[in-house]
Specification:
By secondary structure, the protein is an alpha+beta fold. Helix content is about 50%, strand content about 15%. The chain has 30 helices and 17 strands. The strands form 5 sheets. It has a 6-stranded antiparallel beta sheet. It has a 4-stranded antiparallel beta sheet with strand order 14-3-16-15. The longest helix is centred in the first third of the chain and has 32 residues. The two termini are about 65 Å apart.
Amino acid sequence: MSLVKWFRKNNTKVMAVVVIVIMFGFVAGPALRWLGRGTSAQQKTVAYFANNKKITNYDLALARRELDILKMLRADIILKSIGAPLSRMIDLRALLLGELLFAERRASPAVITQLKQIIRANEYRISDKQINDIYRRSMGSEIYWLLLKNEARLAGIRESNKTSGAQLAGLIPQLFNGATYSQLISPIVNRQGFPEKEILTTFSNLLAVIQYARIICANENVTISQTMHNVSWENETIDAEFVKFDSAVFADAQDEPTPQEIFAHFDKYKKFFAGAVSLENPYGFGYKLPDRVKLEYIAVKLDDISAIVTAPTQQDAEDYYQKYRERFTSSVPSDPNDPNSPTIERTKSYAEVASIIRNQLLQNKINSKGERILQEARALTEANLQDIDTELEKLSTEQFQQMVGDYKTAADQLSTKYKIKVYTGQTGLLGAPDIRTDKNLGGLYLKGQGYNPLGLAQIVFALDELKTSELGPFDVPKPRLYENIGPLSDITAQITGQTAGKIMAVVRLLEAKKASEPESVDQSFSKASITLDEEQQKSPQDVYSVREKVVEDLKKLEAMDTTKRKAEEFINLIMEVGWEDATDKFNELYGQQQKQDITETNLLGTKDQVTDLSKPFKMEDATNLKRISSMTRKTLAILSEGNPAAELLTSGFERQGLFIEQLHSLIPPDSNTVDNVPLILEFKPYMSYYCLKNVSINRLNQNQYEIIKAMRIYKESFVQSQSLAPVHFNPENILKRMNFRLVKEAQDPKRTPEATDANAPPQTTGVSL
């Protein structure tokens, strides 16, 4: 049969086949092309790590799948419960790993607060910034998980599935209300479709990452000599009795320095901060100006607000008591006649707590009213910002300044409306210590999402122009110039319930200046704080003059010789009349010359509270003074990072340590006391002489050392390993040490096929994978 005849005979069948082929082409063709493209996209290399090892889209999808498995196992809870080996303490290495991998969307202020409390309680050498950096990720969690598990694998760290299964079997009942291994794992296998082997392998990888972190963070050995040094310094104490002779007592009697002397002294020490003691600067002279800010404020007195709120009635107090009776309990002996009997919880009667409740209700009303007034102040000064099309973050400082409202106008309106005085004004240029120690500004705080109150200084010095302060992810947002901050409450009023002299305020930053050397010795500027009385007399301390500070220091320096002679005169008088009569005599002769110096610090590094300026000489008894080791100094420095007023603490701490060292140097190695007393000790950082009556040391003997040694070695090793945890799990450190780098896209992937694929890599500019 010819081909033509065959087609004529079977034309119906042929047409059917053709139609089927055409339909298959329409339907199956795109599907095959999509399948091929999907396979290609999964194998597409998006990044490299280590020695040019590839990361494909498939690797990322697998990493996400493994993280999903770990979430189903509630690994975040497991990691928070893991204790450090040989310790009952939480292991920061496990805890920070959990925060890195699982806190992208559910980061908790409570966890950060707990972390910082653990760090301070155990004196880990970890700064707030290091903790905050854990939450500042440039990549998605799957990237860090993929890198960490490969890092452990490349180091040869493995955990078997048998080990991980046993770990899970032991942990699950403890963490999940007595649930068994099968009760947790079976639903994951049956409902989610994850094989049990894959679940155990993923958990094994997690244990390997933790094990590798423990090895790496514990590889710094603690030497015996280092241990002996630390044990000795931490357990030996010095006791001293002395009378301090401060050169400030005799400074006013000195001649005024010449202009040449003033300029030479200023020029020599203008690069130092005040109190920065060194071999080059033993007295701690310094005229470098710290970071400073100028504030504008709207403030109300709580006393004024109390006059315009209605006091709570007795019925209000009784209703509150009935609603919250469980808050008013106390522990009392179960047997009233036996104070040692087991205690029980007893609810206090209304009569016992009525006054407390009324005071608290009144305080709540005052706070609520003050907040309402200041929120209205914010609204009045931010009215022009409400309807603009541009995002506020994109406004320049100049544009923002032009759009905000006038504080005085707002304050006047609120004064008229609420019939109380609403204060407004501007401060001078204030450093962080100025704010911290100010009677009005020092207590002002805000509360972010976390549980810790943030002081005003901590907030304003986080300004981008300064970046002196550290704010975490759950603190308040960083401020900007001319932006309202507040309402701020007074923390002392919240704690004590006392409103006398307390304020609430809204402030904004008008100016910020970075630390710098003074322009000249004649530079001066206002350091005025909040003014709550228009007739208040301006204090000389409201103006800071570089020249006056230089003159003050020069006169105190000049008075050092006089101070030494007076100390020698005092020693001679002691021989005749004794310590008490000699002290009374010197107070009688020289007491009126003393001029209070509020910046002076005592042995505890805090401000001297001079109650009687006419009696500058007094017998002081300093006991149990401990030498300050370099490790302690390092710990304090790290814990103070991000604290804008840290210099106020650390400089006093350093000078205290130097003073104790000088006392220690007076005692011979083979003795526990100084025999040739009374004697005179010069201490330059305080510009003072000390007439010493007794100096003794309580040394650590060999038996005591042997008892302490093992525990001290373990403690130091433990502190070091825990302190390295945020370094090891720092997101940027992980990327760097694993040599992670993204593949640069050569084409514009705005709407490429890969861009619509679920496994395709996102843009690498400003977007995490």
